[in-house]
## 1
Amino acid sequence: MKVRAVAAQQVPFTIDADFDLGEAAAPWCRAHGADVVVRRGAVPLSLPRPESRGVAWQHAAGRTLILTPCGARFLVKGGSAMRYALDGGASLADLRLFFLGTALGVLAAQRGLLPLKASAVANGEDVHALVGMPTRGKSASAAALAARGYPFFADDLLILDPTGLDTEARCYRCDDLKVWPKALELADCEKVGPVRPTSKYRKLYAVPRQRAARVSGRLRTVVYLASFKRGDASGDRHSMHLERLSGSNKVETVIEAAIHSRPITIAVVGRLPLFQWVMALSRRVEMLRLTRPEIPAMFGAGVNRIAALLSAAESGAVQTCKDAVP
Amino acid sequence: MKNMKITPESRVRRTPDNFVNAMLDDDLVFMDVAEGQFYGLREAGLRVWQLIEEDSGAWTQVQELTTALCAEFRVDEEKCRRDIAVLLDELQAVGLVELS
Amino acid sequence: MTRAHPVSGQRRIAWLASYPRSGNTWTRLLLANFLSAAAEPVGINDLGSAMFSALYHGRPWFDSVAGISSSDCTEDEAESLRPAVVRFWAQETQRKATPLFCKSHEACRATPAGEPLFPDDVTVGAVYLIRNPLDIAVSWAFYLGDKGFADSVAYLNARTSGLGGAGNHELRQRLFDWSGHVESWTGASFPVLTVRYEDLLADTAGWLGKIASFLRLDGASDRRRLEQAVAHSAFARLQENEGREGFHKNSPHSRTPFFRSGVAGDWGRHLSAAQVRDVLAAHGATMARFGYSCRATG
């Protein structure tokens, strides 16, 4: 499904890239006159005098170097240009994966936007994000929600505009759904093909039942998906716990789970602006924590619960309780 | 870890220079600008912070905090004293207050 | 007695290593209570505090230190970064006098490229817990729920056994078989204190003192402090704690409390003669080395 009428769905910046960014990113692409130019070229292995660094990245004077272990390297410059190199057998598919996660997030941060690590679904203009620790089922839950009337919006990277947070949390989508093979059936989506060409990486691109038509929306809800905290030995393997977050719990949730490429984003954005953005975001959106068992048999019940609470959140009535699901 | 024993005669003052803070819902959220750690104060803990002199040059006696808190919350004075001591110890450990 | 290196420069990590179901969580609880020396016991769910927070095999920790998502990488790629990640963490973590404790169930091994996953230059030493593999087989079966003892014996005996990996919330951890695991840690190049779980059970305060002394911790010979730590971590309290707080470490498939029973020598009631023979055949030599009986009857 191609995205139409791009002029009516503005993106915060446009990209002229010399490789295919995938279907979800199409609204961002321009052949000429784009805000950001992305080209293959020479990328150094390190920066001369990094102000800050981590294992897979360095940052200095508005330039960020990203070094992925598959051999793809990115140099993101001043929010307006990006060069990439592919070494050690890294493929275009590898490039696309790391571009639409880490590199694009860093580019967004350099341009004054906040890259969130989240899956998301939409309902008209409203966007609901799913956040949590890795492998807690964010993507699969988003796909399953798409089969329950909430079109798929984002898989891993949700770009937030922090400038308008006093009135709304405008966010943008750019990536396609990726799930593990075992989640295809549970998440009711159709396999497209492998994300990376190696058999050692088994995630698949997949098509959800419904995809959002718009490229942007208003972030309304953030649901933190947690795994089961075991109680007593009898019935708790089937129960779920829902909690409405407030105050410092919201901040903790966003910082711990929802900032994409967190150490790099902190280096690029700065701690103080990030604090202000996180506080403003926390005031703007509803945040909930849903804890449910990790076992496949409970996946559907968990998604139904999310759908119910999104619907309640939209109508302004969220009930929180520990409930046993039959 | 306890650095010094906190008595009613101990004094405390704010040292918020390395922090930014803002209210969010009912919590006062702090961030250590250098380290990036977040902390939150709410309810009685927030009240203790508010009762400590805002002017960071000025000292407040721990006994004053205990007296005020006991008046505002229905709590046994001994427990209140102990809880305040634990809180102040934690606040000092992260650098939000200084004790003498 | 061997002692760990003192904490200095980048050398700051104390590994708390063991094959699964060998008392690792209990030992961390003992250490946490010993170090805190507070009136209130440290609860099971407090083991996620800053002191013990490094989960070397955890994706959140890897992602937050590396800056990229381990979930975008193959297991080999993520593993190739782990030595750099642990070095970076050791270097950057706030200066402390006590070691940074880091739990692991992995064999003490290297990446496919030959880089040690437990680098000597960041290590003060390791406390390695060892337990009778017959008891491990029983405990493992209960932890995994419905699997049965045949599966846990096969797991103990297989060179390729592991934890975590693609799609799992933990990174891939290779265990080797039980004997291989033991040999990898007891033969490591840095100081290692090997502690038999059965000895720890029989004289907890004494062995906690030896562990504290090995790690150069203050108060290692303070009997009262050791005994308080033991009391706070006592099994009954563990099970009570677990029931009240809900211990999150338990496998979602398990129907039994995490700390099922502290008793050693339980295996005779559960394993078949054939299962016992399999374990002895695979691990008899290592068992004998560490004082475990190789008799086929309990």
Note: The two ends of chain A are 38 Å apart (CA to CA).
## 2
Amino acid sequence: MNAINPTSLKRRSFIYRELVKLGAAFGEVNGAAVALNFGATREAELASARRLALADLSVLPHAGFKGRGTAEWLTAQGLSIGPDSNIAYGQAGGELAARLAPAEIFLLDSLAGSGALMQRLNSAWKWAEAAPRPQQGYPLPRQDSHGWFMLAGEFAPEMFSKMCGVDLRRDRFADGQIAQTSVAKMGAIIIRADRKVKYGRAHAAYHVLADIASAEYLWSCLLDAGEEFGIKPVGLTALRDLEQ
Amino acid sequence: MSDVNRLPAPFGRLIDRSETVSFDFEGRTISGFKGDTIASALCANDQWMISRSFKYHRPRGVLTMAGQDANTLVQLADEPNCLADKYPAKNGLKVKAQNYFGSFDNDMARVVELVHRFLPVGFYYKTFNEKKQSWSFWEPIVRAMTGLGAIDPKADFHESYYDKQYLFADVAVIGGGPAGLAAAQAAAEAGAEVILIEENVALGGSLGYARFDAEGVRASRQLGDFERVLAGTKGVEIMTGTICSGLFSDNWIPLIKGNRFYKLRAKSIVVATGSIEQPAVFRNNDLPGVIMASAAQRLIRLYGVRPGRKAVILAANDDAYGAALDLIDAGLTVAAIADLRPTVPQTPLVAAVAARGIEILAGHGISEALYSAKTHISGAVLAPVTGEGTLGGGGKSVACDLILMSVGFSPAGQLLHHAGAKFGYCRQSDMFQPVELPAKVHAAGSVNNVYDLGAVIADGKRAGLAAAKDAGLNVASVPAAITEKGNVGRTHPWPIFPHDRGFDFVDFDEDLKYHDLINGIADGYDNVELLKRYSTVGMGPSQGRHSAVTSVRIVSRETGVDIAGMSVTTQRPPYTPEKFGHLAGRVFDPGRRTAMHHRHLELGAQMMPAGVWWRPAYYGGKADRTNAIETEVKAVRENVGLIDVSTLGGLDVRGPDAAEFLNRMYTFSYTKQPIGRSRYVLMTDNAGVITDDGVACRFHDEHFYVTATTSGVDAVYRQMLFWNAQWRLDVDVANVTAALCGVNIAGPKSRQVLQKVCTDIDLSPEGFPYMGVKMGTVAGIPARLMRVGFVGELGYEIHVPAGFGEALWDELMEAGKPEGIRPFGVEAQRVLRLEKGHIIVSQDTDGLTNVWEADMPWALAKTKPFFVGGRSTEIMGKMKLARKLVGFTLKDSGDPCPEECHLVLKGEEIVGRITSAVKSPSVGKVVGLAYVHGDDSAPGTEFTIKVQGGRRITGVVTKYPFYDPENKRQEM
Amino acid sequence: MKVMNCPLNGPRNISEFAWGGEVKPMPDPATMGDKEWAAWLFLEANEAGLVREWWCHVPTSYWFIAERNNITDEIIKTYPATELFNTRVEFAAKAPSGSGEKK
């Protein structure tokens, strides 16, 4: 990935200007520019990601399906989806299928961001032709409805408690659990998605999915709330490297 | 003068003698140590008078040293009403006393004392109830004389950062005294996650300052034990310097620490807030030098401050003797102990005091505190008790500069009150006690009427285990309630000794004397709640902490109602005043921005709020507003314009029942709507009131893309889900408002511009007619295109995934350069649509407008079985119309353009209002929409409009559209 | 602040919820007289005691039903709307006479 300018591509994160101001170096993923790092050394960004860091993943592939038959159809497409709502189920390629409701799935790509699963599903989905019509749910434009941030590091739960009324501490909110709640007075989806290292160790990390139109607001709220813990923006590289 | 009253270590466990601080008090430089409060530093410097009283401007000094009284409210440069006995002494503070005129030491208004008989109880009621005009005479006097601190608008206010945080715990323990410490330890040992909240800077409560044994070692030993055990116990988070300001439903606990407001949710609560030492009533009991025994002990042990030189103690319990020993240890002389009890039990503490040769006068009280200096007491008159509240005459004067009151306690039950606990009077202890607690709330220690230290610790342990059990932890057994409480003989039932010459204060905050209450009761306010409101007893800043029990006792005796059946007045949150900053916290205001937001700013747009969104009002400087809007209107009418319509609501309605669902939600019929076409949607609620509108675009037999208004879409979405939760149709509704952003490219040259970047759609009038909808790409971006006519020109609405929004804007602006494309804002759009007579729901409709009033029966499908609001619409259709929305112009073209909400009159009666009006650039005159009387709606009818300044002008009902009435331009 | 148990999302602060009114079955609009219709529309029983209400969890737009005691302010139970509404509701086509029937 060569260094690129976010405006050279047609798909853009709603907060690319903020990332530029913070000194981001960008690479192309999913037809858009994603911040790879913010100019610090690899070790420094990794240290931030272990302590408290915020990353913008908004342009990474994410998608969704909703409506009667959604889970059945996705299962038929090879996804592994458990029965409980508000759990994010891991997929073979490292993607997450977040079951928001019995008939609603939010799909998040792995941090590799190839988009292969989303592409396959979107092209497999067709309007059913005739009765008896199979129930299949409908695709949702999740790529564009929700900004996608990752908050990583051991201080993340404490920081969340400054803007969210759900107890997200690690011993109360398990890996893979989902909270659909209010964050800084916005509706938001929080998914605990630890970055796993060898021997069962893991670094705390949470996906934050919220109204794309308030992405700039939420980004600034999160940075503000994290200030007392020394929050830093980090790029995709540090988040990927957390698992090494 | 310096800190002449400072005691050597080990007195002063809270101060750090290695660091001095100095601040200004009324022009004096006061020096103290880190850890001092303003009040402790003042006392160390022999400055006993700290403020003046509210009504009579009497000198006042420390009373409790616990932040429980209003005597020590002081004024800081940027903050009024600070508790001097809590506020930390800091370098550079500018502290002033409150409630004085002229000089603090020589307050000119103290003459009010001389005329106090003319300020009777119920002054406000008596003076202003019937003679209301007298308020104009009294107001300036009352306003200047009363009130507490002042806010100085010219002060150098510093901005502060306040914020909030949620906390979670199994068990919240409020109060870090012996009961709270024992409760926290027991709950944590049972496996609970505990948060222990202490208002003061250090844990310990009475263990930090009180004396439980003659040797004076038990308290510190016990505190040390707790500290050691807690340090080794997992699961206790300690928050000191933290005020719990209330208890609310489901154990919701607000906490204030510094500039942060915490919202703690606990599974169960232990309230161990202790008790409040109560004053005695005697003449001049309010003057500096008369303090609670516990306040003297706090000064000595917490701050290392000698509370005086020579003391008299008014006693009614064993605690007084512990305080006496402390005074002796601190080097004071104890001149005498007047003990209200006829015989003094020979406890170890009493024996220790007696052994030091102190005079103990059993069966004696204080009839009066004497003063020679204007600002401090100089003696006490001791007299034998002859009956309940009476003392023998004569009496013996004893010189002293300190009087301690140690006559009893009252539970600090505010938080339990908030939680809904009921209190009753305990005859054995002569104190109120909690008798009924809400579920999952426990009381422990002296707030629970348990006083003996061993019993307090046992009670704390019991409550801690009970709370852990409530929180779902496995607790083998919870001990039974404590029976040996050590509460008998702690509190005197009548430490009230009124004096013929008055100034025997019951309420220090409000300057209420014994006879004020007696007179209030005599005026007929013979119930504590009524008396409180009439006399204001208990309504000052300390909220009755020291006056409530005394006033209950007085009411009981005066009315003959048994005190056992009475209660103190209701206590409500907050426990102490909260700052607006704490309540506001960090303001979360999530405004929504479209993908093109920054492009608008770069183009010089003036942004305006539209619901929760920000939209461009117009492009250009504020001074150039009118011209900018007219130019934008002209660009659309004559050339081509581009507007960001991303904020418009968008709903994907999909499924076999999609058309049936829309039939039920909207007034029109959608079953036969062709694919590739759009149709108007009008929503009414169950009462037939218009709530929203938009268009439904059919992209597939089972897929409608429905638009909704910017501010209405969330409610529309919620209503759709609400109804289908009942109907169970096979349809899915998704709110895709933010996921799709959009522009409307409008004007005669819009097709010419669009076809440069849109090559996969036939844009010809035949291929893509008016009201047609298509999917395709624009500049390579997947798009939904609609030919709609809100502004009345040829135009295309283009909706694309939000991530591509900025690129779409850029591509269209670039493509339109040769044609001179111009961005236009909401203001121009409003003019354009008004020229076409399109209504805006919630601007041209209100909370009552129905389909008939809005003159839109054309939007009703006649034959379908049901739609929400259909039945009500049908009923209202049979009724006479009170008002109707009409188009209008002005009779006299010289008249000014009316504004929104100017009134429409019929005779002198208000019958309607202007909803929209503008001087139309396209038709060259004023056009608008208005509600007129139902009888006046025929075109050509004249009606009266009352405009600015009360002027009346004449409007003429006019058919609309005002512009291009045959709608040819939008169909080009 | 009270806590309400959302059947989908679990216990949450009541500030995450919106009230949707009492659950009161709609009478057949086609056969109901004007006055009776108006009474159903505008008059609430407003009884003290157990009430059954619609509530919506706002962040997920999830509608459910809550039963609570409005005297003690206790939420007795909450459950999905499907427990009360589990069959498709139809409205009969308008007969020429103007009377219809809900199946």
Note: Strands of chain C lie at 3-6, 10-13, 17-22, 50-57, 62-69, 74-80.
